[in-house]
Amino acid sequence: MSTHNRRIKQIEFTLAGVAFQCQVQNWNMANNTEDGEKLYAQCPDGEFREDADPDYALELTFFSDWRSDGISDFLTAHDMEWVAFQLDHHPDIVGEHVRWTGEVKVRAPNAGGEARATEMTEVTLPVKGKPVYTRP
């Protein structure tokens, strides 16, 4: 197979059905799942691995938006709530469009920063279980 590369240019991203992709600068669907524990029994083929529970998180860096319909306001208003999310990666490229869906636990963002700097926010939103991966 030949080398293939693509720049990340566009996503579609919603929280509770509200689109926020124009605020997102950086995103990462992090798979933090451990390998699981290796266990042994007292017999020749008594080695096995007990699988760990899925541990995923959606890591976001975005331009802070404290307007009433902005992402910063949304995260603060829904702090500690589980909400549905959908993230479409390469939505404009046939054959490469992929989607993750599920629920994330919203966390209110930190606020503040350096004078005259563009206000940015980083959050890590834990995903409930394993997100559903599809090709729409």
Write out key terms for the chains shown.
single chain, 136 residues, mainly beta, five-stranded antiparallel β-sheet, three-stranded antiparallel β-sheet, 1 helix, 10 strands, 5% helix, 43% strand, globular
Would you give an account of this structure?
The chain is mainly beta. Helices cover 5% and strands 43% of the residues. The chain has one helix spanning 71-77, and strands spanning 11-15, 18-19, 24-31, 37-40, 47-50, 56-63, 82-89, 98-105, 120-127, 132-134. The strands form three sheets. The protein has a five-stranded antiparallel sheet with strand order 2-1-7-8-10, with no helix packed on it. A three-stranded antiparallel sheet has the order 3-6-9, with no helix packed on it. The longest helix is centred in the middle third of the chain and has 7 residues, at 71-77. The model has no long low-confidence stretch (mean pLDDT 95).
